[in-house]
Amino acid sequence: MIYGYARISSKHQNIDRQIRNIKSRYPDAIMIIEVYTGRTQDRPKWVNLISMVKENDKIIFDSVSRMSRTSDEGFADYKALYQRGITLEFINEPQIDTAVYRESLQIDIPMTGTDADLILKGVEQYLMKLAEKQIKIAFDQAQKEVDDLRQRTIEGLQTARLAGKKLGRPHGRCITEKERKAKNIIIKRDKLFGGDLCPTDCMKVIGISRNTYYRYRKDLQQATNA
Questions:
Q1: CATH superfamily assigned to domain 2-141
Q2: What is the pLDDT of residues 15-51, one digit of tens each?
Q3: Cβ(59)–Cβ(86) under 8 Å?
Q4: Residues 186, 201: contact at Cβ < 8 Å?
């Protein structure tokens, strides 16, 4: 069986690109689509998928960053699935496809029953460590893209202010230090901007009312489109 796994962190994000990329390569792939909802970041569909896949099944991702939110968690799943004989394919990072390591290991060659087996096992462990490093590099790159988006949002807000755009604030009112700090947290933590918190949890962290929170977030959305 061939499965495609696509994930987004917020209902405001668009998942179509991931689906399109996977389907263009595997039109018959069974798509598993996951969106974080509520207050948790549990991924029940992913958990169900990795429990049901069988040896020789294949899971396709648009990017390794869709497999997990963290490199440590992602590599743990990668290693477990690899050892179960599941094929993992990453469209944007083909260098870490499981096929790359299986081919290098020549797994179809049986163990010799001699000390040479120790060498074969050592090579496999080395290649898995290499995979771990490359996966973490890929996750770091994905995180950099999120950070870049946040920085562009901040710069867009500053540009809009310099251009005289009011961004929903009453005429003549200057932004306070409290508002500035709150918006910085929203940019970093709100799922709309690639963060890890839903609005309810984020406004609790900041300690502001619902109306104020959504006004600030609207300002930031307008700045992103400025």
A1: Resolvase, N-terminal catalytic domain (3.40.50.1390)
A2: 899 999 999 999 999 999 998 654 445 788 999 999 9
A3: yes
A4: no
